[in-house]
Design goal:
The complex is a heterodimer of chains A (about 270) and B (about 350).
Chain A lengths: L5 E10 L2 E11 L3 E7 L5 H8 L5 E7 L2 E2 L5 H7 E4 L11 H6 L14 H13 L15 H15 L3 E5 L7 H15 L5 E5 L3 H7 L2 E6 L2 E6 L6 H12 L2 E7 L5 E7 L8
Parallel strand pairs in A: 3-8, 3-9, 6-7, 7-8
Antiparallel strand pairs in A: 1-2, 1-4, 4-5, 9-10, 11-12
Helix pairs in contact in A: 4-5
Chain B lengths: L7 H28 L7 H5 L3 H35 L12 H16 L13 H8 L1 H26 L5 H25 L5 H10 L10 H17 L1 H7 L3 H6 L4 H23 L5 H13 L4 H24 L7 H19 L7
Helix pairs in contact in B: 1-3, 1-14, 3-9, 3-12, 3-13, 3-14, 4-6, 4-7, 4-8, 4-12, 6-7, 6-12, 9-12, 13-14, 13-15, 14-15
The chains are: A alpha/beta (about 270), B mainly alpha (about 350).
Chain lengths: ~270, ~350
């Protein structure tokens, strides 16, 4: 495992004169998903935008040893894909066209996607559960289906670093797990890593190898659910969400899972 | 998960049918435009080799019809481009100042260039070319074209000065340039001779295809069709520009450069049309919406259909402008009169929404 696959050092960013993020440092290992957790306004989206240079930021980001601020825009797009909270598709477009946009970093200005790329786009749509909907109008989809379509576009982008800003916010329980399973399948055993902003800590505990907890623009804790102690994690979560209990319990197959309970005794978030 | 299949084949067939119908209607109106006017022409008269009929046909009707076709096509396509690039369903070619710049340019041409030029004094140009350039209409056309182009370059330069260089800053810069051009136009109107020049300026501002002549056609066709071809070649990039700017950038689009290139092509196309016809209201706004309401997609065929809708509207308006009264009426009266009710009808009846 190469610890220096991606490193962010002392990242500070904001909007105008208002600083939202201060001195955040972390690293990502290849083949892993890192969950970005924190309350609303804690700086999750700002961090994602700062990493991919959509916002001016201080600090350094190194991807495979290469400083990101030296990469030209096109090269950056070949290395990093970014899913915003809501995609800005405003025209009625078939899903296939939306997914094919993912090939743009590798295409010339006037070049059109090849037949192979069209087939790959169809397969990506099938992988996210939108089989046979290539010609469906994007604007007629539910918000959840739109997120799945944008996930399919991310699959064809085939980049080293994936930055996803709440890719599950409009998905139902089944599709939320399904989309993270797809992401897990894409990342695992590959020279890729993902930084995913999520609101649901249970989902993050289940699917992420590392958790970055943000509070008021600062990094509160960097957790590793596989080997950090329950007490340490519980304390870190309590600083973000208020008093919570983190417990281990077996699921139906006997596999031990982590469950976060709020002080009212219900699974978090209630 | 519920499937919301869009019947692709039916939709694609519908687009083809709509394009074929629009093409047929454009051709029919084009043929009618060649024949209708103060001097009525018939195919029999032309085939019989009637000299006067042939002269009217070649020197008046062909240029006028071609300009209506190209002008409408250009304004329709450019309107679609502006609406897509600025994510704004109300955007039209004037949003970045092209029409107001062209108006100020035309007024400048009418006041200062038309009467003063003599064929011999034009930088030693060959006699024929000097004669063409010395005619008032051509200098007004050139002046309007340069005015439109200058206004847009100023808008884009001002937009680039704003931090972030977003499409919103270009729109705001366009509003500022539009106001400046309007002020300049008002100043020029004050200077104009009320009997002769002021009337010419006002007539230009209302649009007419009356003054279009044959010798201006080749350059206009060359620039206009070249720009339209360029826009269709860049259509994939145009779709990427329709996304949020951050999303386009992360998909590898050089947003600033590509937007500048596409806007310049659309501006040239618009300037090419209105410098010849005068201001034509409503076509650039209405034609793309009509196409989108009819097809319900953002495919290239919708942009082309918007172009055909523009041609149909301008041809129809021009036919009415020269037929309803003994004198020639401004064409903009009829583009609005024909277009507005049709757009309202489509808006009420259509199953598609033009924009999210």
């Amino acid at each position: 495992m190469d610890p220096a696959f991606f490193t962010a050092k002392n990242i500070s960013a904001g909007y105008g004169k208002q600083t939202v993020l201060e001195d955040v440092s972390f690293s990502l290992e290849p083949g892993t998903i890192t969950g970005l957790l924190g309350a609303n306004g804690s700086g999750k989206s700002t961090l994602l935008k700062a990493v991919c240079r959509l916002l001016p930021a201080r600090g350094t980001c190194l991807l495979k040893g290469q400083p990101l601020d030296t990469l030209p825009r096109r090269r950056l797009a070949k290395e990093i894909s970014y899913i915003p909270q809501r995609s800005g598709v405003i025209l009625s477009l078939p899903l296939l066209e939306v997914v094919l946009m993912g090939f743009n970093p590798g295409l010339g200005l006037l070049q059109r996607p090849s037949r192979t790329q069209r087939d790959a786009a169809r397969q990506a749509l099938a992988a996210v559960g939108l089989t046979g909907m290539e010609d469906t109008d994007y604007l007629t989809l539910s918000e959840g289906q739109k997120q799945l379509c944008i996930l399919a576009r991310t699959l064809v982008e085939d980049t080293s670093l994936l930055l996803l800003d709440e890719p599950d916010s409009a998905l139902d329980f089944h599709n939320r797990c399904h989309s993270l399973q797809i992401l897990q399948g894409l990342i695992r055993n590959q020279e890729k890593a993902a930084l995913v902003s999520v609101h649901d800590p249970l989902l993050a505990l289940d699917f992420c190898q590392q958790l970055l907890l943000l509070k008021e623009g600062r990094c509160m804790a960097l957790l590793h659910p596989a080997y950090d102690s329950l007490n340490d994690m519980q304390e870190a979560f309590s600083q973000i969400y208020g008093p919570v209990s983190l417990i281990r319990c077996p699921d139906r197959s006997g596999r031990e899972r982590l469950v976060l309970l709020s002080e009212h005794g219900t699974a978090f978030p209630c | 998960m519920p499937r919301t299949d869009f019947p692709s084949r039916r939709s694609s067939r519908r687009e083809k049918v709509l394009l074929a119908a629009a093409l047929l209607l454009t051709i029919s109106l084009g043929v009618l435009s060649l024949m209708v006017g103060k001097y009525p022409l018939t195919p029999a008269l032309l085939l019989a080799g009637d000299e006067q009929a042939l002269r009217v046909f070649v020197t008046l009707r062909v240029p006028r019809t071609c300009m209506a076709l190209l002008g409408g096509l250009g304004l329709g396509i450019a309107g679609g481009v502006f609406q897509t690039v600025f994510h704004n369903p109300l955007a039209s070619p004037d949003i970045i100042g092209v029409s107001s710049g062209a108006s100020a340019g035309a007024a400048f041409g009418i006041l200062f260039l038309s009467p003063g030029l003599s064929p011999g004094g034009l930088f030693g140009l060959p006699g024929g070319l000097a004669h063409i350039l010395s005619s008032g209409a051509v200098s007004v056309t050139l002046s309007a074209f340069l005015g439109g182009l200058l206004a847009v370059l100023l808008t884009l330069a001002l937009g680039a000065l704003a931090p972030g260089k977003s499409s919103a800053s270009i729109v705001l810069a366009g509003i500022a340039v539009h106001s400046l051009a309007q002020t300049l136009l008002m100043g020029l109107k004050l200077l104009a001779d009320p009997e002769r020049e002021l009337a010419s300026v006002e007539y230009w501002l209302m649009g007419s295809l009356n003054g279009v002549s044959l010798h201006r056609l080749p350059a206009t066709l060359f620039i206009g069709l070249g720009c339209a071809g360029g826009i269709f070649l860049l259509y994939r990039q145009l779709l990427l520009l329709s996304l949020e700017e951050s999303e386009s950038r992360m998909l590898g689009v050089h947003v600033g450069r590509v937007r500048l290139l596409i806007l310049l092509l659309a501006t040239l196309l618009t300037a090419c049309a209105i410098s010849n016809t005068g201001l034509i209201s409503f076509v650039g706004l209405l034609a793309p919406h009509t196409a989108r309401l009819l097809t319900g997609t953002g495919r290239p065929s919708t942009l082309l259909l918007g172009g055909f809708a523009g041609s149909i509207l301008l041809l129809g308006a021009d036919l009415l402008a020269r037929s309803v009264s003994s004198g020639e009426l401004p064409v903009s009266i009829f583009t609005s009169l024909l277009g507005a009710p049709f757009l309202i009808y489509l808006l009420v009846k259509s199953a598609h929404t033009p924009y999210r």
